[in-house]
């Protein structure tokens, strides 16, 4: 901490030390500067950014497609996949696809999606309730 110096004095102090005068907070009154090695400063800032980027988790949306007439074993396999995706921190979009006359009995699809909701209730929350989009009904489930 040197205190308040004039611009020329500060530059001279930096030159004596063989370092650079770097403006840290230009909007402050008076502006805040540091005497340091600018190359080393930029390198450390870049390392901090890279470290922060490494720790970031990108949430993906995985999709599981079901049919209203799915058998119990096939359902269990799909449920295991959904649990794995949720444990990894990803959202799961559950799509119920209707073909032909299945469209007349949308309640079977809704019952199946409610079964998914109930089975995943302890590890996930429903982010988007089931809704029809053309010939398919979709629901989005996110980790708790």
Widest β-sheet, arrangement of strands: 3-4-6-5
Q: Calculate the terminal CA-CA distance, rounded to whole Å.
A: 48 Å
Number of distinct helices: 4
Strand proportion: 25-35%
Structural class: alpha+beta
Poorly predicted sequence stretches spanning 5 or more consecutive residues: none
Q: What is the averaged pLDDT score?
A: 91
Please estimate the helix content: 40-55%
Shape: rod-shaped
Largest beta sheet, briefly?
4 strands, mixed
User: Quick one: how many beta strands?
Assistant: 6
Question: Over all CA atoms, what is the radius of gyration?
Answer: 29 Å
User: H/E element string?
Assistant: HEEHEHEHEE
List keywords for this structure.
alpha+beta, 6 strands, rod-shaped, two-stranded antiparallel sheet, 4 helices, 144 residues
Describe this protein's structure:
By secondary structure, this protein is of the alpha+beta class. The chain has helices at 7-17, 38-55, 72-87, 106-119; strands spanning 20-25, 32-36, 61-66, 91-97, 124-133, 136-143. The strands form two sheets. The protein has a four-stranded mixed sheet, covered by helices on one side. The protein has a two-stranded antiparallel sheet with strand order 1-2. β3 (61-66), α3 and β4 form a beta-alpha-beta unit. It is rod-shaped.
Secondary structure elements and their pairing?
Layout: H1 7-17, E1 20-25, E2 32-36, H2 38-55, E3 61-66, H3 72-87, E4 91-97, H4 106-119, E5 124-133, E6 136-143
Parallel strand pairs: 3-4
Antiparallel strand pairs: 1-2, 4-6, 5-6
